[in-house]
Amino acid sequence: MTLRVTVLGAGSIGIFVGGKLAAAGARATFVGRPRMLAEIGEHGLRLSDLDGGNDRVSQTAFATETEPESAVTADLVLITVKSAQTAAAAEQLVNRVRPGAVVISLQNGIGNDTVIREILPSCVVLAGMVGFNVVNHGSGHFHRGTEGVVAVSADPALERFVPLFARAGLPLDVHADLLPVQWAKLLLNLNNPINALSGRPLAEQLGARDYRRCLALAQAEALAVMRRARIHPARLTLVPPRLMVRVLGLPDALFTRLAAGVLAVDPQARSSMADDLALGRTTEIAWLSGEIVNLGTMVSMPTPVNARLVELVGVAERGDTRRWSGPELLAQLRAAKSGAVGADRPSRSDPVR
Asked: Is the pTM of this model over 0.90?
């Protein structure tokens, strides 16, 4: 029997994952903005990756819609909207999605599945995580630019979908407790604001020591807060999280030799936050660095580095197109950590998201 999948949030991640499922035999329906739906409706899908994969999916293999009407018959719903849109997306499914249907949150941040579960109590709602970056090259071409897996919380209802994901080349990484994995992914995603503020492709930015030092400061602060909160992030890379902070600060040549896997990135790949700023959209900074700031407040620990990243991205969201050099951004974060006020710091009356 053909499995029906509704992807609520037809952005780069949603289209890549849903497209791969369609290529594996599922009947996929993408729900999203008219502009994106028009693009894939005209061109079909080309799904490539840095390992040489190149799938073509014709327009006859999937459907598009601006409202999730297909959820009525969906076996599986993937929610891939930005975290700020989680509640609104789940509300669209009320009185549409069938009781018992499986709904997976494939989103950044912590706790989106809880929001969805409260709105859709009759569904099997699971936390999930996409560990790779997808670049939209236009004309229906979506490219996986980094390594990574699709992780999800364990549940018996998931078993019928495991073969589909395996055929699609996206074998599910199933966890009895996904929270340590989500916190580990959040640590990695603390590079998103640094990449967005740099204006550089990921590989180029990660290849520059001062930008990596910025990431090390943000991660070290996050790890300290997690330790006080007794949160133990999983190990998602060859280098454990606490050791990664030290590795990031190594000279470029040594870092390249010791952490080649970190640089296994398509030369043109950028963070989703960089894409959001380029398109004039609100970013997910509140669910990344902002999550660390909130956790710090909960455990009474200051988080000036991540708070400064929230401020700088907030300024960029409001139209500041400045591209920060590695030394400039590092100086800002070190000044924040030491309690100094940066020259470009917004005033306290300037609203920051």
From this structure: no
